[in-house]
Amino acid sequence: MVMKQIPESLLETKIDITPPVNERGEKEVIDAILDAIYQAKNPLVFVDALVHRHNAKKEASKLVDILAFPTYAANMGKIIIDETHPSYVGIYNGRVSTPGLYEAVETSDLALVLGSIPSDTNSGVFTRTFHDAKCIQINPHSVVFLKIGGEKWLDVHMKPLLTRLVSTITKSSLPKVPKPRLGSRPAAKDIDAKHITQSYIWDRIAAFLRPGDVLLADTGTAAFGLPDATFPKDVIFITQTYYGSIGYCTPAALGSDVALSELHTEQGKSRGRTILVTGDGSLQLTIQEVGTMIARGFQPIIIVINNAGYTIERVIHGARQPYNDIVAYDYSHMLSLFGASKSEATTNFHRATKRGGVHAVTETSSFHPMSEFGF
């Protein structure tokens, strides 16, 4: 079958992914949602990754604008709502959230939950529960009222529902909810360290980002460290902590760079950067795709966090067990191994083991595609 010829014209057929509109169901749901919102004293909005996956980011952002309720995101839902938005509070990850944030959420009496992925690693090991709040879950294809009566509407789709909800809200009837004041994040105990630390590296990478960038964080320290850093507007953040598939982000970075290039060529969109942050363990699973990047002329920025093994697994189980060790790679040879010329490989590789080295690499205007940061 792989050798069978098919007409190229089929590629010109557009795929319609517009979800169907259920007018009757939407009206019932919206009446119920508005009744709950107008009666609430301290409501909040919570945004997760399925909002982005089902193309409802614009609609969710408009809802946040008009409601002006304190707004939170899951790890996987980070940056769907602009983190400089006046209503945005932070990442709510249950008991392991930023100090003060869990307590602020627990005072809510109504949680409007959009596109939730309730997996263990995306919910603070199931401690993200909105304990005392009534909870309205707006899912991609259904709406569920929890702790309100258990009503459930099927075949009501998130994207058109949010559009209709935004146009139906009476702003004068909305409760005015002050944004919680959490205070500043406590200073890290190793703030004066010269070597690279977890408390340092994620904020440093966030400061390197520019609007339009796509940042991919592989499962591991990157996926759990980067969400606590603040990103600039119009960055796309991709992480995958649902299945915990280490190695996912390297081929995903290739796909991202292909998409950015095609959008730039075909639609004239400005070309952001693809930035992959992966651990040394995760990279070894799909490292061959670096060869595809080089062969096809793509140049995503690859940041390898080299912490000598499966660090997340050491934390979970087996801190000193040999099964969490890996074979050490000499990454300075990686680009030439996969086909880059010797001069390209030398120019485009940087290694840093101290904070000063990281600053030198990320602050230069001619930052090159691959860096290794050793802890």
From TrEMBL:
CDD domains: TPP_PDC_IPDC. Its cofactor is thiamine diphosphate. Residues 30-143 form the Thiamine pyrophosphate enzyme central domain. Keywords: Decarboxylase, Lyase, Magnesium, Metal-binding, Thiamine pyrophosphate. Residues 237-315 form the Thiamine pyrophosphate enzyme TPP-binding domain. It holds the Pfam family TPP_enzyme_C. Belongs to the TPP enzyme family. This is Pyruvate decarboxylase. It comes from Cryomyces antarcticus.
